[in-house]
Amino acid sequence: FLTGVTVSTNFPTANPLQPTSGGRDDAFITKLNSSGTALLYSTYLGGADEDAGFDIAIDALGNAYVTGTTTSTNFPLSAPFQATRQGNRDAFVTKLSPSGSESVYSSYLGGSDLDWGHTIALDRGGNAHVAGATRSPDFPTSPSAAQPVYTGVLNPSLGNSLQGFVAKIAEGTALFVPVVVSTSGASNSFFTSELMLTNRGSSQATLTFVYTAAFGGGSGTATDTLPAGEQKVIPDAISYLGSFRIPIPDSGNRGGTLMVRFSSSGGAVAVRTTTAVSGGRAGLAYSGITSAAALR
Predict the structure, then answer these.
(1) Distance (Å, rounded) from C-alpha 54 to C-alpha 284?
(2) Which residues pair with 19 in a beta bridge?
(3) Which of 16, 32, 111, 295 has its CA 20 to 30 A from that of 232?
(4) What phi and psi values does residue 99 have, to the nearest 5 degrees?
(5) What is the DSSP code (8-state) at residue 217?
(6) pLDDT at residue 296 above 50?
(7) Which three-class secondary structure state does DSSP give residue 11?
(8) In what order do the strands lie in the sheet with 103-109?
(9) Please, are residues 89 and 162 in contact by the beta-carbon 8 Å criterion?
(10) Sheet harboring 39-45: ordered strands across?
(11) CA–CA–CA angle 222, 81, 56 (5° rounding)
């Protein structure tokens, strides 16, 4: 697994998350086979300005975690914990799926000045730990931080002094839904899947949906938000996903699997797939399960 920086517009790609250069300099993430003779995946990662990958770590499932630095205001994001660039240069943290073609999460990390993510490592829980350097006096810190405030020298003309940082990135909650459908059945039945999303956390959650079509076509990703302590009931999951421009056909039999990722802990997903019967509806109810449980 490799990461770095490229200015090439013809950098070799394979099964890419981002098939073309985003702009001036891009980070890249590449996975080679064990003999080093073929690309298993290779992708650009960057926006319109300067982006560079500095370090990469791999978990037991093959997910790749990358950190680096970016000056792009349109760096590719997914379920971010920091959705906008705060200074002229921010660190970034990105997690790619084992195939390399999907972003599990991708976020800026920084304050109002210059920030770099230099190294990344993983703990047994799959949380990423990033170490780097910052000139930002307002670099984001947690309430339990060992050093919650910037103690360097502020110098607007020559530049603030550098300080190190260490940040632990919590994974959030990823839940796998084995089936959502909008399809006809036997005896003139027609099944639809009702989706119930719950955020039990203390802050607004960004929800990332990854829909993989089993029939009918239209795989894709989408995002939405859910305020803290709220629940959203969606009568027709397929129509809801289609409203985000996932290219699901408007009619016909459609169905597939769904991954729902909450940017924070405390998320829950429940599904009811039912058809109309005399006196109401009948069918099955089931909950989303963790991706680890799905792999077992």
Answers:
(1) 48
(2) none
(3) 295
(4) -75, -20
(5) -
(6) no
(7) coil
(8) 51-58, 64-70, 90-96, 103-109
(9) no
(10) 2-6, 26-32, 39-45
(11) 95
Our CA angle for 277, 270, 217, nearest 5°, is 75
Sequence letter at residue 76 = P
What is the CB-side half-sphere exposure of residue 172 using CA atoms within 13 A? 23
How far is 77 from 188, CA to CA, in rounded Å?
43
Residue type, 19: P
CB 15 within 8 A of CB 38: no
CB atoms within 10 A of CB 8: 11
CA atoms within 13 A of residue 293's CA, in its CB half-sphere: 11
Please answer whether residues 67 and 119 qualify as being in contact, where contact means their C-beta atoms are separated by less than 8 angstroms: yes
List, in sequence order, the alpha helices (H) in 58-201. none
Express each pLDDT in 91-133 by its tens digit: 999 999 899 988 988 999 999 999 999 999 998 777 899 999 9
At 291, is the pLDDT very low, low, confident or very high (cuts 50, 70, 90)?
low
User: How many other CB atoms sit within 10 Å of the CB of residue 199?
Assistant: 25
Adjacent-strand bridge partners of 221? 210
